[in-house]
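<given_protein>
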Amino acid sequence: MAMELQNPAPGDAGNRNKHRVSVTADSNITLDDTQAQTERALLHGLLTSPVRLVIGLADAYLQPRDFLDEQARTVYRAILAEANEIAEAGETDKTVNPTRVVNALRAQGEYTGTVPRLMVNVSATGIPAPAWATTERLARDLVGQRLRHALEAVGITLQAASHGSHADIRLALQHARHLESLAKRAGVIEETGEVK
């Protein structure tokens, strides 16, 4: 099953900022401009923050799969690996040097496609470093956007399954299982299960 939805942003009469979500059986969702900007800004914030904060954010709720863009996911994994290496050396107040990330990506054969351009965008020295509170908010926003995309994808899958076979229903229910934990990471539901 595959379906594509295009909804203009509220108050947007033109084609600018269209939300384009492409949903397939494996819940692939394409990136819109807002999501891409959030991911780039978050990666920039992570590169300019002490590694103890970067690791703390990853431990608390930010996972690689929260990045919809595969290249951003690759860069995030590399930043996190470098942050862990720096922390293991006892230098938790240092930041991750973008050159280390590039070298690690090259060594893994992942410095290909649009990854070099993404690295230039997120490590540009002319862009001021965001405050840590802004980086945290961007991370929460990213997880929240992933939750919204997942809700939409699961909703479409559930609706289609209502007219499908038992196998379609089982698949739709499997897709819905992760929503509660994702909502907890997004800060929508507390660990106790109460809605905030």
